[in-house]
Fold this sequence. Notes:
The chain is an alpha+beta fold. Helix 10 (335-348) runs parallel beside helix 11. The two termini are 43 Å apart. Residues 76-138 have low confidence and may be disordered.
Amino acid sequence: xxxxxxxxxxxxxxxxxxxxxxxxxxxxxxxxxxxxxxxxxxxxxxxxxxxxxxxxxxxxxxxxxxxxxxxxxxxxxxxxxxxxxxxxxxxxxxxxxxxxxxxxxxxxxxxxxxxxxxxxxxxxxxxxxxxxxxxxxxxxxxxxxxxxxxxxxxxxxxxxxxxxxxxxxxxxxxxxxxxxxxxxxxxxxxxxxxxxxxxxxxxxxxxxxxxxxxxxxxxxxxxxxxxxxxxxxxxxxxxxxxxxxxxxxxxxxxxxxxxxxxxxxxxxxxxxxxxxxxxxxxxxxxxxxxxxxxxxxxxxxxxxxxxxxxxxxxxxxxxxxxxxxxxxxxxxxxxxxxxxxxxxxxxxxxxxxxxxxxxxxxxxxxxxxxxxxxxxxxxxxxxxxxxxxxxxxxxxxxxxxxxxxxxxxxxxxxxxxxxxxxxxxxxxxxxxxxxxxxxxxxxxxxxxxxxxxxxxxxxxxxxxxxxxxxxxxxxxxxxxxxxxxxxxxxxxxxxxxxxxxxxxxxxxxxxxxxxxxxxxxxxxxxxxxxxxxxxx
Length: 536
């Protein structure tokens, strides 16, 4: 294959770089060695063209990049295209036909798909021309818009309190999306959208813990707390002595502290997080049978800094030293490299059998699940297909992928492909296993790689796009359902779920514990998985 080099205007952020990479993948499914650099504004990839295919591909790529407000600069001496019959030809002028054809390409192409919590998401659009936001599409204004304007005028006329313009704007947009009936759709404010982007990247500023909002009882009273379920490696929390099982009872210390129970989950979390270099103060109750309350009270003052989330945990089974347990809590940019570290480390420790625990995994990025599944499949194997209301289908196959700077977590090398396909393995699921985690589960079954143990999965087989609204003069982003997705067998599990090969619910004794702190010997689902996989 020949290496092609183009200049792209507008590569101002990691999101723009990923958009450019996904545009190339959408236009050229067989492309390899994709690289994109914001510093040099260069986009390179390897591809093989026949006759006029290169011109046609370049023209479609221009349209695909335009969706993300990126401009492709053709090689020196080639400015644009004209048409001879139905074939594009490189020329130096820009006839009207080209503009029309580019708009058609813009409408047709689908760029940058990702899954996110409990669903497939996309940064960008699904290639639709949304027209003029201010009503320039030529359609009559919907009656409910007129009703809203009239109601607003009446309210302002009679209201003593008046209207908080910013709060009203966000509330109306959220209410509109909710009223559509698309239960996975959401309007995100600018702050919520940035938080989503940060979480998907796997990087954030904080102390470096995962928590569960749960309830504990002290002296006959129940309190909602943030219970620590994991402490990240190389984190301020680990260095400060925070332990799994600690319950954050208060934000703050001393007389300034406030109950998490009173603040609620969202406010309590926001107080633990903050800017790098500042100090997070909180008070934990650590289980301690020597104390009258059953808990020891400990105050922490920990400096916040940038930390990397931990989407994969692993350990050698306490009940069988030949079994490695890999827990995946989501699929983001950290997952593939952490997954590799987990499996390779467990193999080094002598593990011969593997349990991949997808319980309570709500999903994540398509790029991430593609990378992880590539470890179990052969080159060219189908990972997922997405199907749209107009009947169009996109298919994603196992292949080598190299992303630009900042997105190395999604890379798939030649050595990565199929490296774990011969493992003795089994998959654990429950009713909260959803979206990308269901795709992992379904794919392992479709290719005969692993049995499934646990309870029926959530049942989410539809995909959402996330549209950055700034290009339309609005703040924030819109998440909207755009397609259905299917694994290799094309089995429909949307609103149905995946039924395990061995159905087993958690015992009542096990359910008395926080899931993430449950003793292994009481986890009857895990014990059944270990029993089955070691019998192979």
